[in-house]
Amino acid sequence: SKLLMNAVDLPLSGSKVICEFSLPDNLWPVEMDDVQIRQVINNLLINAREAVHDAGIITIHAENVNISAGNGLPLKEGNYVKWSIRDHGIGISKENLPKIFDPYFTTKPTGSARGMGLGLALCYSIIKKHDGVITVESEPGMGSTFIVYLPASPQVDSSRKGVGEQVDARKGKILVMDEDETVRNATGIVLSYLG
To answer: I need a surface site. Which of 8, 21, 35, 128 has the fewest CB within 10 A?
Structure first.
């Protein structure tokens, strides 16, 4: 809840957008990378802000859900925290809806940071890496709702917290993009040094 509430200030600053929250006090804990999930929230809020043309209402809702077999979602059975960001903006056309999570797909003007087509692809990738799912419901002229499911953490006995904990080491690839070769090389060296 705190992450969802605290992440709205930056992407909505300077606009007349009002953010309404529907967040229960008893949301289950989620093991996540706060920085990455904040990036997802940021990208979704920027898109929602643009959809309502900097003036309107955006609703953030969250709840605990239990996913069972045959739910229609590509998720394992279990407990999840479901949260959504809803705008009442222009919506997404039916022909564009299946493509919105594709890299480099955009309906925004190109040639600026606004039209690169990487925001939703990044959101999709981050949520997938967290073993979750992101979906969208949209109606042209009525707005869009982006829904995220993240697996709830198993309940941890707080008296044993820190005892025998191990760091979850993950391996993967990192793509560094910058027009300056010196920056690319220096970043590569730092990332290699950090493992």
So the answer is: 35
DSSP letters spanning 122-188: HHHHHHHHTT-EEEEEEETTTEEEEEEEEEPPPP--GGGTTTT--------------S-HHHHHHHH
Predicted TM-score (pTM) of the model is 0.75
Report how far apart, in Å, the C-alpha atoms of 15 and of each of 51, 141, 194 are.
12, 21, 39
Q: What is the tens place of the pLDDT at every residue in 3-33?
A: 999 999 889 988 899 999 999 999 999 999 9
Edge to edge, what strands does the sheet with 78-87 contain?
A: 16-22, 55-67, 78-87, 143-151, 133-139
Percent composition of the chain: helix, strand, coil (DSSP 3-state, to 5): 30, 25, 45
**Are 148 and 39 contacting, i.e. CB atoms less than 8 angstroms apart?**
no
How far is Cα 100 from Cα 5, in angstroms, rounded to an integer? Answer: 25
| Contact yes or no for 178/184 (Cβ under 8 A) | yes
- For tokens 């999709």, name the residue: 124
- pLDDT-based confidence at residue 103 (cuts at 50, 70, 90): confident
Q: Cα–chain-centroid distance for residue 114? A: 17
**Cα–Cα separations (whole angstroms), residue 67 to 23, 24, 96, 102:** 19, 19, 28, 26
* Chain centroid to CA 91: 18
Q: Report the pLDDT value the prediction gives residue 165, as an integer from 0 to 100.
A: 45
